[in-house]
Every structure is written in structure tokens, then in C-alpha cells.
TrEMBL record:
PANTHER family found in the cross-reference section: SLL1072 PROTEIN, SLR1083 PROTEIN
One example GO MF annotation: endonuclease activity
Protein name according to UniProt: Uma2 family endonuclease
KW Hydrolase (keyword) present: yes
Keywords associated with the record: Endonuclease, Hydrolase, Nuclease
Origin superkingdom: Bacteria
Start and end residues of each Putative restriction endonuclease domain: 9-161
Upper taxonomic lineage: Bacteria, Pseudomonadati, Pseudomonadota, Alphaproteobacteria, Hyphomicrobiales
InterPro entries hit by this protein: Nuclease_put_TT1808 (IPR012296), Restrct_endonuc-II-like (IPR011335), Uma2 (IPR008538)
Pfam families according to UniProt: Uma2 (PF05685)
Length: 165
């Protein structure tokens, strides 16, 4: 579409069920918190696990999303990465918080993403989604800033957002 002149290369969109959905612009709170989370993942993620920031996560032929982070088994697995093979998807929500917790969480669940964290960039609280089902996640828990975030499928990783400054 960029080559055809339909859209600019810098436009931020996701493909959801064949529909182009514009993404919100990222603010400084989002970027600062995303940098903190990325540094935590880089320091604490056990081998051979890997993470990729802002990857085009292809959930199906007509659904591509762009999580802030996706954690998976090893770097070689990135090519075949899909919902069930991801261990954790992380979204940092500022202006997009309601969308990330609502429609986007439902999309992740429908495609079998086992665990999703949506971090509120303002309040520094995290909504953890587990047990995906076709119509949404069966378990949803809110985690306070000072509590330790420990993913279900990533042994040895723990992040505390109160460490963010």
C-alpha cells in the first residue's frame, strides 16, 4: 500500500480481520515505560528465551498486530511465531489503554495468546490476561505497581513497576 501511494510509510496501523485500524501516536510516558520494560526483559529473561519489541505479530493471514513486546522460546522461533507459540505479549497503554484492554485483548485471546499484560503507563498498574478462549480471556487480574509481575510461562522472570523511575 505504501508502494502504491495509498498510505504513508510512517502511518501506524494494524490489520484486524482484514480491516486497517489506525494506532494511537505514542507519547513520552509510553516510550519511557517501554524502555524500562525492555531493559528489564534484556537483563532478566532466561536463555534460550527471546523477546522482540514492536514486531509485526502475524496472528492469521488477515490479522497482524504490533505488541510492544512478545516473548517466545528462542530467536529461531520468530519466523513461525503465532498466538499459541508466544509465551507472553506485553502492551503498554497510554492513550490506547481502553483499546488494548478491550478489543485488542479479545483479538489476542481469539488467536490463543496464552498470556497478555496490558500496562497502564499513567498508573503503572498491569492487567494480566490468562486462559484465552474464543470470546476473551477466562482469567483477568489487576496487579498493583508495587507487586511483582511474574509470567506464568516464563520461569525466572519478575518485573516490579515500582522500580521504574
Amino acid at each position: 500500500m505504501v508502494r502504491a501511494g495509498i498510505m504513508d510509510a510512517k502511518e501506524r496501523v494494524e490489520l484486524i480481520g482484514g480491516e486497517l485500524v489506525p494506532m494511537s501516536a505514542k507519547g513520552i510516558r509510553h516510550e519511557r515505560l517501554k524502555t524500562f520494560v525492555m531493559m528489564q526483559l534484556a537483563r532478566k529473561l532466561p536463555e534460550p528465551l527471546a523477546f522482540t519489541p514492536e514486531t509485526t505479530f502475524r496472528l492469521s493471514e488477515d490479522t497482524f498486530v504490533e505488541p510492544d513486546f512478545v516473548v517466545y522460546d528462542n530467536p529461531a522461533a520468530l519466523e513461525g511465531l503465532n498466538g499459541p507459540s508466544s509465551l507472553l505479549a506485553i502492551e503498554v497503554g497510554d492513550s490506547s489503554l481502553a483499546y488494548d484492554r478491550g478489543r485488542k485483548a479479545s483479538i489476542y485471546a481469539a488467536f490463543g495468546v496464552r498470556e497478555l499484560w496490558v500496562i497502564d503507563a499513567v498508573r503503572l498498574e498491569t492487567r494480566v490476561f490468562l486462559e484465552p478462549a474464543p470470546l476473551g480471556y477466562r482469567r483477568v487480574t489487576d496487579v498493583r505497581t508495587e507487586a511483582m509481575l511474574t509470567p506464568t510461562f516464563v520461569a525466572g522472570l519478575a518485573i516490579t513497576l515500582s522500580d521504574y523511575s
